[in-house]
Amino acid sequence: MSTMLFDEPGPRARRRMRVATVIGALATVALAVLAVRQFAANGQLDAARWQPYATWPMWRYLLNGLGSTALAAVVSAALAMAFGLVLGLGRLSPRRWARVPAAGYVEVVRTVPALLLVYVVLFALPRYGLDLPLFWKLVVPLSVSHAASFAEIFRAGILSVERGQSEAGLAVGLTPGRTMRLIVLPQAARRVLPSIVSQSVGLLKDTSLGFVVSYTELLYSSKVLANYNGLLIQTYIVVALVYLVVNMSLSKLARTLEARRRAVLRRRTTRV
Amino acid sequence: MSVILDHLPELWQGLIVTLQLTAASFLGAAVLGVVVTALRVSPVRVLRAIGTAYVETFQNLPLLVLLVLAVFGLPEIGIQADLLVTAIVVIAVYEAAYIGEALRSGVNAVSRGQGEAARAIGLTFTQSLRHVILPQALRTVVQPLGNIFIALTMNTALAGAVGVIDLTAAANRVNLVEAQPIPIFVGAGLAYALLAACAGFVTGRLEKRLVILR
Fold first, then answer.
1. Residue A124 contacts residue B181 (beta carbons within 8 Å)
2. B24/B92 Cα distance (integer angstroms)
3. CA–CA distance, B67 with B93 (Å, rounded to integer)
4. From its record, what is one biological process in GO terms (chain B) (predicted)?
5. Which residue of A has its CA nearest to B46?
6. What tens digit of pLDDT does each residue of B46-89 get?
7. What is the average pLDDT score of chain B?
8. Is the pLDDT assigned to residue B35 strictly greater than 90?
9. The pTM is what?
């Protein structure tokens, strides 16, 4: 908690803070009351409209969707990371023919919407005889677009390893490739782990593009469900909560990893 | 190439909508983001909690889920607005979380003495934030804000998935009629790349003029 912007409060400041606390709390409560009234006024609070979400078949269906989301996220994360590592190494390569295309790829893909890539795979590739299965229609554009982000993360990680490390590797007679593989990459991997986890949250969020592809991940499943049972807002709220729980846990993991890494670094510097 | 020329009016209209979405939602997101940052660094615990909850919620929800919820869900409880306006508000609310997070790291980068000096000459919390801390914080986060702007431009394409006819949706429609995906999608991609390049150029210039070297 940064205490940069305020001192230990005196009696007057404490009074003001109490007033602000009350106002903040009241505003939150008022917002909640307003929302509930709006729901009630339109009959969306009826128990019958929420009760289905307390039944197991409904959750089995939604968890199936979540499973597909997870599968798509894991496969595209693996592909994007592998491709991203190649691109990141390419951008750092001393050889021009590797550096220029890698840099070009990253810069171009960063500035094209993922949805446009999805449309290309959905509508352009079939015309040229490449009609992928539904799963890959979602995974391929996601991997293509997130590979660029992973490339930047890996590049930053590799650059953050002290020069002395690779110099030492070269000095004991390792080839540049082995120095990278045995000395620099393992250290870089440890440093970029938190960023990789938070980038994966972004990727998991993007799997909701399955809505467009009509691949039955969580969001598309919920669309089908809502069209079937007519409980639009209930379904989407429940699904949003599911996304929230999953992504918050992942974000928490990223923060924990980061804190642990910082703690290790601190311990190391104090020991020296 | 002639496909693009034949359908120039539709594609142009789509580009205009994309620009409207981008400009309006970035403006809204900037205002909301400053408010969220102010909440997150305030001395009052409840306000800090509200700010943190806001950022946590909107950073962890997919934008498309929010758009679907707002466009198809909200009419169910009697809240119905123009489609474009809904999309703008949702994107603004979503991106405000990212702007708030970037600004907060900027506030943390302002050196401690600045806040202490502001208090020492008797400025209140709001005054010191407005006149001393935020102007400096903004200068340190020009580059991150530029990146958020580019990401926001790309995210406006998602509005196309819920029925707004933006550039992506217009390109898709033209392709459904003409079935010439390569020129159409490459053209649309180039337009986005051009927008991002402009944004990158402007942030580069801004950063050069505004950055404080410490």
1. yes
2. 8
3. 11
4. amino acid transport
5. A21
6. 999 999 999 999 999 999 999 999 999 888 888 888 999 999 99
7. 90
8. yes
9. 0.89
Comparing B27 with A258, the larger pLDDT belongs to: B27
Distant-in-sequence, close-in-space partners of B94: CB < 8 Å, separation ≥ 6: B29, B58, B61, B63, B66, B155
Q: Rounded to whole angstroms, how far apart are CA atoms B28 and B37?
A: 14
Cα gap B139→B206, rounded to integer Å = 9
Whether residue A40 is predicted with pLDDT greater than 60 in this model: the reply is yes
Report the C-alpha gap between B49 and B55 in whole angstroms.
10
**Contact residues for A66 (Cβ-Cβ < 8 A; gap 6+):** A218, A242, A246
Q: How far apart are CA A128 and CA B175, in angstroms?
A: 14
A258: distance to nearest CA of chain B, Å?
16
Residue A173 φ/ψ, nearest 5 degrees: 95, 10
The answer to whether the CB of B152 falls within 8 A of the CB of B26 is yes
Q: Is A163 exposed, middle or buried (0-12, 13-18, 19+ CB in 10 A)?
A: exposed
A154-193 residues touching B, CB cutoff 8 A: none
Q: Which chain B residue has the Cα nearest residue A38?
A: B77
- ipTM, two decimals, is 0.88
* Per-residue exposure over A62-93, b if at least 16 CB sit within 10 Å of its own CB, e if not: beebbebbeebbebbbebbbebbbbbbbbbbe
**Closest Cβ–Cβ partner in A2, A5, A38 for B77:** A38
Domains of chain A in start order, with CATH, are 55-271 (1.10.3720.10)
> pLDDT band at A271, cuts 50/70/90?
low
Pair A204, A247: CB distance under 8 Å: yes
Domains of chain B: 2-210 (1.10.3720.10)
pLDDT at A1: 41
- Using CA coordinates, name the residue in chain B closest to A230: B76
